[in-house]
Write a structure and sequence with these properties.
With about 200 residues, this protein is an alpha+beta fold. The chain has 7 helices and 7 strands. Helix 2 crosses helix 6. The longest helix has 16 residues.
Length: about 200
């Protein structure tokens, strides 16, 4: 039996469903999503369990992240995300060249926030570009831009968030909006820069 693409496997098992179909010149294109919140949370919790192994206390860390998000505790969120990344065994980085790229870290962040039950959107497009990650939960909005070390750092991520107005779509809701610029290092395998601003 040949290799099955992860998205095909997730679709066939019911973890993903068709949200939108688009007719293209060379066939149809599909946008897949989760059928409901419970499936999204369950899948992301399972992915984190597999990624972090037996040493990770999922419920404790998820509850701590929820408390920090409710309070708008950006320093606490940074600490928890750093601890999450520090818990990934070093052997897995050596076997996975993805750990050298922003997408690896963005995926871990996505799974961690999704496991809290928050509304999480990756690569959310707006009129001037795409925010790497947007998280809405507990009456707050968190808008993230990620950079790998050597690409301008957290300051460049924050400048991009502001210059491109990634948070503009959330203005007028009466919710605090937290801009978060994060820098990751492939060598440190963790967060090496973190800038925030609340608007």
């Amino acid at each position: 039996m040949g290799r099955v693409a992860p998205e095909a496997l997730l679709f066939q098992t019911g973890y993903l469903t068709v949200l939108e179909r688009e007719d293209l010149e060379d066939g149809a294109g599909y946008r897949l999503g989760y059928p409901n919140r419970e499936v999204r949370q369950s899948l992301n919790r399972s992915l984190l369990d597999d990624l972090l192994g037996a040493g990770w206390n999922r419920d404790r860390d998820r509850k701590r992240l929820i408390r920090a998000m409710k309070a708008g505790d950006l320093a606490g969120i940074k600490e928890l995300l750093g601890a999450l990344l520090a818990g990934i065994p070093h052997q897995w980085h050596g076997r996975n060249p993805m750990a050298e790229h922003e997408g690896f870290y963005a995926s871990v962040m996505y799974a961690h926030f999704s496991a809290t039950g928050a509304e999480v959107r990756a690569e959310e497009s707006g009129s001037a570009g795409r925010a790497d990650l947007c998280v809405r939960a507990f009456g707050r909005v968190y808008v993230f831009d990620f950079k790998m070390r050597g690409r301008g750092g957290a300051a460049a991520a924050m400048a991009q968030l502001k210059a491109r107005g990634y948070a503009d779509r959330y203005r007028g809701r009466g919710e605090p909006i937290h801009l978060v610029g994060m820098e990751f290092s492939a060598e440190a395998r963790n967060v090496t820069g973190f800038e925030t601003e609340t608007i």
